[in-house]
Design brief:
This protein is an all-alpha fold. It has one domain. It is built from six helices and no strands. It has helices at 2-29, 31-37, 41-53, 58-91, 96-118, 128-153. The protein starts with a helix and ends in an 18-residue tail after the last helix. The mean pLDDT is 78.
Length: 171
C-alpha cells in the first residue's frame, strides 16, 4: 500500500512536470501560433512582456501574470492527470488508453468548462484557432497521462481469484 502511494505521488509529479514543459513548448513551436504572432515570434513575446511590465504598477502586472500561469498550469497540467489517477485507482484500471485518453480529454475540456460557466450563451461557438488550441491541450494531457501510466498506472496486475467465474475446476 505504501509503495503504491509513493508510485502514485511520483507519477503525478513527473506527469505534471512533463505537461508543464510540453505545453509552452507546443505553443511556441506551433505554426498557427507563430503565424499569428509575427515573423519573429520571440520578439513578439518579449514585446508583450515589455508592455505588460511597463504598466502603471509593474508589481500588480507581475502578480497577474504569475497568477495566470499558475491557473493554466493547474487546470491543464495538474488537475486532469490527478482526476485520471483517482478514477483509475478507484476502478483499478491499468489501461494506457484510459489514462492518456481521459487526461487528454479533461485537459482539452477545462477551458470549455470554464467558458461555459462564465458565458453560457457563447459556449457553443468555436473558431479555428480555439479548435487548434484545444488540440494542443489534448496532446498536453496525453503526454501527462502517458508519463503517469508509465510510472504508476501499469502496475502489477493481481492474479485472478478462484471462484465460480474461474476457468479452473475446483478439486
Amino acid at each position: 500500500m505504501f509503495a503504491r502511494l509513493i508510485l502514485t505521488t511520483v507519477g503525478l509529479a513527473c506527469a505534471s512536470a512533463a505537461a508543464l514543459l510540453f505545453l509552452p513548448f507546443a505553443v511556441l513551436v506551433d505554426p498557427l501560433v507563430q503565424s499569428a504572432a509575427s515573423p519573429a515570434p520571440a520578439d513578439h513575446w518579449f514585446g508583450i512582456l515589455e508592455r505588460l511590465f511597463w504598466d502603471d504598477d509593474p508589481q500588480e502586472a507581475l502578480a497577474t501574470f504569475v497568477q495566470l500561469i499558475w491557473t493554466i498550469g493547474m487546470l491543464v497540467c495538474v488537475v486532469p492527470v490527478t482526476i485520471a489517477a483517482l478514477v483509475g485507482g478507484l476502478t483499478r484500471t491499468r489501461s494506457f488508453v484510459f489514462f492518456a485518453g481521459l487526461t487528454g480529454t479533461l485537459a482539452a475540456a477545462m477551458p470549455w468548462i470554464l467558458r461555459a460557466s462564465r458565458f453560457a450563451e457563447s459556449g457553443g461557438q468555436i473558431s479555428a484557432a480555439e479548435g487548434h488550441l484545444t488540440l494542443i491541450l489534448f496532446l498536453t494531457g496525453v503526454v501527462a497521462g502517458t508519463i503517469y501510466w508509465v510510472i504508476a498506472g501499469r502496475g502489477e496486475r493481481k492474479p485472478p481469484r478462484d471462484g465460480w467465474m474461474s476457468d479452473q475446476p475446483k478439486e
